[in-house]
Design goal:
about 180 residues, mainly alpha, Arc Repressor Mutant, subunit A, Tetracycline Repressor, domain 2, 9 helices, about 70% helix
Length: about 180
């Protein structure tokens, strides 16, 4: 049985949970390059405990953001379930932009590359596949501009999250994306 397979003692489990919760808060507010000592302080553990549980920053980022990527997966599944592909596309963008404007760390996780074998990259790749299906459905229905591509989502997210009134900005972007 490896170290990762052994069940954690109750105090070690509490420390791990406190570190992940603190990482979500700190990374969410300051981004994934936030100081690890601030996370340890907020979790009320020593920095050595942080490094014992998470040997690398990437390990901590993954523990903190895999659940958020699972939420993003649920958003894409909801969008694909819409009968109206345009309504599904709009739902996907509204929910995705909301997730990004409220969580700087999540925005950075979405826009950065991590180790291809990491859980983060695997989840991002799976979500990208579903996002492309959302786009294709809206285009096949004649609702979305035919020249829009999955990689253009970065432009949409950047534009919609750049100003405080993100709903207004997203509305303007959506007006421009609608097929005529």
């Amino acid at each position: 049985m490896t170290l990762e397979q052994r069940p954690l003692r109750a105090d070690a489990r509490r420390n791990r949970e406190a570190l992940v919760a603190a990482a979500r808060e700190v990374f969410g507010a300051k981004g994934v390059d936030a100081p690890l000592d601030e996370i340890a302080r907020r979790a009320e553990v020593a920095i050595g405990t942080l490094y014992n549980r998470f040997p690398t920053r990437a390990d901590l980022v993954e523990a903190a953001f895999l659940p958020t990527l699972e939420e993003a997966e649920a958003v894409t599944e909801e969008a694909l379930a819409y009968d109206d592909p345009w309504a599904g596309f709009v739902h996907f963008l509204e929910r995705s932009v909301l997730m990004q404007v409220t969580d700087r760390g999540f925005t950075e996780v979405c826009s950065r590359a991590f180790d291809p074998a990491s859980g983060l990259e695997k989840a991002k790749h799976a979500n990208a596949s579903r996002m492309n299906r959302i786009i294709a459905r809206a285009q096949e229905a004649g609702s979305l501009r035919p020249d829009f591509r999955g990689e253009d989502l970065a432009i949409v997210f950047a534009a919609a999250t750049a100003i405080p009134d993100w709903r207004r900005a997203l509305g303007m972007v959506l007006d421009g994306l609608r097929a005529r």
